[in-house]
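Worked Example 4.2. Consider the chain below.
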Amino acid sequence: MILKTIIVEDEKTSREILRNYLAKYCPNVEVVGEAPNIDEALVLIRNNDLDLVFLDVEMPYGNAFDLLDKLTDITFETVFVTAYKEYAIDALNSHASYYLLKPISIDELINAVDYITQIKKQEAVLQQTVLKTKVKSAEGKITIPTQDGFEVIALNTILYCKADDNYTHIFLENNQKKLVSKTLKYFENLLSENGFVRIHKSYLVNVNCIKTYKKGKGGTIVLVNGKELSVSPSKKATLLSFFQ
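Applying the procedure from the previous section yields the following structure tokens:
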């Protein structure tokens, strides 16, 4: 799978080193442009359909985070390249797929490209084929407490669960909703073997009820009832693994 990428780096020598490493060790990466600052990077990003951006943190007239803040719809994966370890947390919070320290380790570069290639392959499967999960329709049931006792709910009627502090909202077919005094983590542990996947700190989803997936930093899913939910970047690989 070919990954179209740009290199955003203010130092010419660093750009050349990375370009040469990619050509020699990552033949599936196609460098379609290079930019020494965020203004030129913006032009390249807006004029190309990119899979990946290698992004230096410190640059003239703004840094990597300023660049990402200017973008409203990010469909590419980001690899931060920097000499400064202290940016790791900020990079993670900016949904970086990988974090490379200078001088670049060839092994780490290959690992980064392999990881992103796998993510992009999984996305391509979702875009090109009907969603068919590895999980059969759930036939089990769970019980939830009520004031008078408990209520039995068939798992295949649950679309998704949403966290609300120590409570969980369970969204069912036919626009029904239940509020349960259990945490979302409780339901994740209970339902993970029955085709439910955590896609976000706030959402646990029945994968059999996913209709479409839209690419993005983490992407979004659309359920059979039209509800659209965000996917955390850290949860994307787990979600996509259901559709390989």
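Residues 130-138 have pLDDT under 50 and may be disordered. Residues 3-128 form a domain with the Rossmann fold fold (CATH 3.40.50.2300). Compare this with Example 4.1 before moving on.
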